[in-house]
Amino acid sequence: MSAHGTNPASAAMAGMNIVTVACLEDGDIDLEDLKKKAEEHKSDLAALMVTYPSTHGVFEEGIKDICQIVHGHGGFVYMDGANMNAQVGLCRPGDLGADVCHLNLHKTFCIPHGGGGPGMGPIGVVKELASFLPGSKAVPAVSSAPWGSASILPISWMYIRMMGPDGLANATKNAILNANYIAKRIGEQFPVLFKGKNGLVAHECIVDPRALKSTADILVDDIAKRLMDYGFHAPTVSFPVVATLMIEPTESESKAELDRFCDAMLAIREEARRIEKGEWSKTDNPLKNAPHTVESVVAGAWTHPYSRETAAYPAAWLRERKFWPSVGRVDGAYGDRNFFCSCSALS
């Protein structure tokens, strides 16, 4: 029950054994399975790793019960701070039952993903764990060189000071509102995989295009590549659910930009519909050939069943501001598994 694979990996590197807890069909944690496994491991239960809201994009309604189950069997609760963008100003991890929480500065506190690395951010703990924090007598400080990246901190400090408590809470509310706006606008064409009991999501939503594989042979990668032709870097692909898109707009985007993204997604769905109707081949269409570079569009010969304009300018706004991908379609999975040296030959 973790936002990132690095969490159980870190626990494994520390010598712990990892036990996976089941989820229900709606994405929530299976409390009965959690109780069963907590009881099985009560003699050596160290901690539960959990994310709130969940990486499925839903506020886990049983989060307090989850924490109580773990505490009742002698364990601590580690809350991944990746989704603090949906908590700041509205709730506190400690009130939910978390014993440890790291707060990512990226996204929530004005730092881009990566932030220059290594990662930096505050770690909050209950008093029983305070002696294990970096900077205590037992553990040297991490925020100073050579382990930390303290130069990032003034950016977040200035952001917090300028926003103030009301501004931070409004940012959280807007992040949640923006995710729900996208979910509502495109949900009929791209079903939202997980929702809360009231039909809403948290600060992110997972949309499911998998039905297009059988009707048009369109995969999530085809949608991601085609979004580049519309001027967008794709949302998270195939995480946490394979072959889906996880959309996390945060509070930063204007309604105009959200609409532009939604319009692009809906236009791509219409392009897939033309494939379903047989107007375009399943192997030669704008999605399968995306992204389209300048070189491919201005080439002398054009043998595709769709026009050059459809390839390069599928939406009117692209006439005013067009991002041209510098590289066409590559086999990303092959490239991830096979390294290539781009250096000049030593000879």
Architecture blueprint of SSEs:
Blueprint: H1 6-13, H2 31-40, E1 47-51, H3 63-72, E2 76-80, H4 93-96, E3 100-102, E4 123-125, H5 153-186, E5 205-207, H6 212-216, H7 220-229, E6 236-237, E7 245-247, H8 255-276, H9 286-289, H10 294-297, H11 308-312, H12 332-337
Parallel strand pairs: 1-2, 2-3
Antiparallel strand pairs: 3-4, 5-7, 6-7
Enumerate the strands of the largest sheet in spatial order, edge to edge or round the barrel.
Answer: 1-2-3-4
Q: Number of DSSP helices?
A: 12
How would you classify the helix and strand content by structural class? alpha/beta
Helix and strand succession?
HHEHEHEEHEHHEEHHHHH
At CATH level 3, the topology of the largest domain is: Aspartate Aminotransferase, domain 2
* Poorly predicted residue ranges: none
Describe the structure.
The chain is built from twelve helices and seven strands. The chain has 347 residues and is of the alpha/beta class. It folds into two domains: 6-153, Type I PLP-dependent aspartate aminotransferase-like (Major domain) (Aspartate Aminotransferase, domain 2, 3-Layer(aba) Sandwich); 208-330, Aspartate Aminotransferase, domain 1, CATH 3.90.1150. A four-stranded mixed beta sheet has the order 1-2-3-4. The protein has a three-stranded antiparallel beta sheet with strand order 5-7-6, covered by helices on one side. Helix 2 packs parallel to helix 3 and helix 5 (153-186) crosses helix 8 (255-276).
